[in-house]
Design a protein that fits this description.
With 326 residues, the chain is of the alpha/beta class. Helix content is 30%, strand content 25%. A hairpin with a 6-residue loop joins strand 9 and strand 10. The chain is globular, with a radius of gyration of 20 Å. Bound molecules: zinc ion (ZN). GO terms for molecular function: hydrolase activity; nucleotide binding.
Length: 326
């Protein structure tokens, strides 16, 4: 079995105790972080993993989408672990460290608007820092959408997600095609010349690549992380309805909101339809996937919407979705 600590004998010796290796999974909204996390969890290798999932929105949808974890799983919602709920992140890690037996590895899925450099800063200064070490910061980049981020309000956040990475997982390369993939690779290496880039088409990466790569030793030479409290101009809201939505109306409404809502995800209750529907939207890409039958649970719609602050009008969004009820 891999022992990540074997690569850090000096760290281990200095601490005199086992330190919990942490891998951050970062990446922009919809880049494929949950898919990557699921691929790691399904592979497993006997290591006692703990998983901490952060959703920026009030609902932790991602936590519902990850496969069953053998070890501990913790969810942090209603805030971002890089800024508004930094204390919750540290408390969560402390709780995990106190469990018996403690996990051998912690995977943290950050929210899509999290700045990984801010999270590194949090761990550098937190009082748990002697009990943990950051083994890897992986940023998932969607090869299809990456170039669109350059001239947006969130370009700075997107860049920090890349510059903060120890390793880049370049996802959906087949959908992007070789020419665009090459352009994205150039964009990444312009921002992070030493980037180690792993290409994949379906978000899956061998466990050993992310949780045991000797090249990660270079992390010690990285420039000091500096907090940027204003790095993400995003807001979120949750739309809920106990009444069913008309499918065609909903489809039409979400199409009309493409400029306002960058990311949406949640479970929908459609009129005259017996199954839950998992809805996901990233930019102009949307997917509707059948889930289980409602069974004994009360059918209801719960949808997280995320958009750029300057164009995000909660009342207008609620009204637009309310108009789909009936
Ligand atoms: Zn944040």
């Amino acid at each position: 079995m891999l022992n990540p600590l074997a690569r850090y004998p000096e760290v281990q010796a200095a601490s005199g105790r086992q330190m919990l290796p942490i891998t951050l999974i970062s990446g922009f909204l919809g880049a494929g972080k949950t898919t990557l996390l699921n691929s790691l969890l399904t592979q497993g290798d006997g290591r006692r993993l703990a998983v901490l999932v952060n959703d920026f929105g009030e609902l932790n949808i991602d936590a519902k989408l990850i496969v069953k974890v053998e070890g501990q799983q913790m969810e942090l919602a209603n805030g971002c672990i890089c800024c508004s709920i930094r204390d919750d992140l540290v408390a969560g890690v402390e709780n995990l460290l106190a469990t018996e037996p403690p996990p051998e590895q912690l995977l943290i899925e950050t929210s899509g608007v999290s700045d990984p450099i801010n999270i590194v800063c949090t761990f550098n200064t937190a009082k748990v820092r002697r009990k943990i070490f950051l083994e890897n910061v992986v940023t998932v980049v969607d090869a299809v959408h990456a170039l669109d981020a350059r001239d947006t309000e969130y370009a700075q956040l997107f860049e920090r997600q890349i510059r903060g990475a120890y390793m880049i997982v370049l996802n959906r390369t087949q959908a992007a095609g070789p020419e665009q993939t090459q352009k994205v690779r150039k964009m990444i290496t312009d921002l992070l010349p030493t980037a180690s880039i792993f290409e994949t088409d379906n978000g899956s990466v061998p466990l050993q690549v992310l949780l045991g790569d000797s090249r990660l030793g270079q992390s010690t030479f990285r420039p000091e992380a500096v907090m940027d409290p204003a790095s993400h101009p995003f807001e979120s809201m949750v739309y809920r309805s106990d009444k069913p939505l008309r499918r065609m109306e909903f489809i039409r409404t979400m199409k009309s909101l493409t400029d306002t809502v960058y990311r949406a995800k949640g479970f929908l209750n459609f009129k005259n339809y017996p199954l839950t529907t998992l809805y996901q939207k990233v930019g102009s890409f949307e997917s509707y996937v059948d889930g289980s039958a409602w069974g004994v649970s009360t059918p209801r719609t719960e949808l997280v919407l995320i958009g750029v602050s300057s164009r995000f009008d909660r009342e207008a969004l609620t009204a637009a979705l309310d108009a789909c009820v009936g």
